[in-house]
Write a structure and sequence with these properties.
This protein is α+β, with helices and mostly antiparallel strands. The protein has 3 helices and 10 strands, in the order βββββββαβββαα. The relative contact order is 0.19. Strands 7-4-9-8 form a 4-stranded mixed beta sheet, with helices on both faces. Helix 2 packs across helix 3. The termini are far apart. 20% of the residues lie in helices and 44% in strands. The longest helix has 15 residues. It is globular and about 60 Å long.
Length: 181
Amino acid sequence: MNLQEKKLSSKEIFNGKILHITHDEVELEDGSHAMREIVRHPGGVCVAAIDKDDNLLFVRQFRYPYNEVVLELPAGKLEKGSTPLENGKRELLEETGAVGYSYISLGQVYPTPGYTDEVIHLYACRIRSEGEARPDEGEFLHVERIPFIKATEMVLNNQIFDAKTQIAVLKASALLQSGRI
């Protein structure tokens, strides 16, 4: 069993500012054909920034697809010409005004592998300094500081719904408890 699919054709059905959607025909392992709708995304980054008192910086922002304000770690999409780490540092500064140091990778996640190729890079860091947030035009955020223990409990009690935030909080929590952050 090789589980591979071979792309036979691809048709672009949407080309937007961030998302590109294709409709692909594939050949399955048994030789039959199937259709795949794929959302192409440049990828993202998420940063668990920890202050000297072991609090995490979060942002609350309105997320239109859910029609609600969502609690998340600072994050954003990858920009061409920059590494994921450079993007993470930029997003942390823009969204919270914080500058981090001692960045460590928490790995990558595939948020929805059934229909998108998006990869989100996760990092943790300590906070060196804090200043004014500089959100992008049209981006409105409220910065919050939450103790690590409380943030972990919020994930476990289903009070934080954002998947990348859940994963980064739990991974960073494990590393913090083991003394690696």
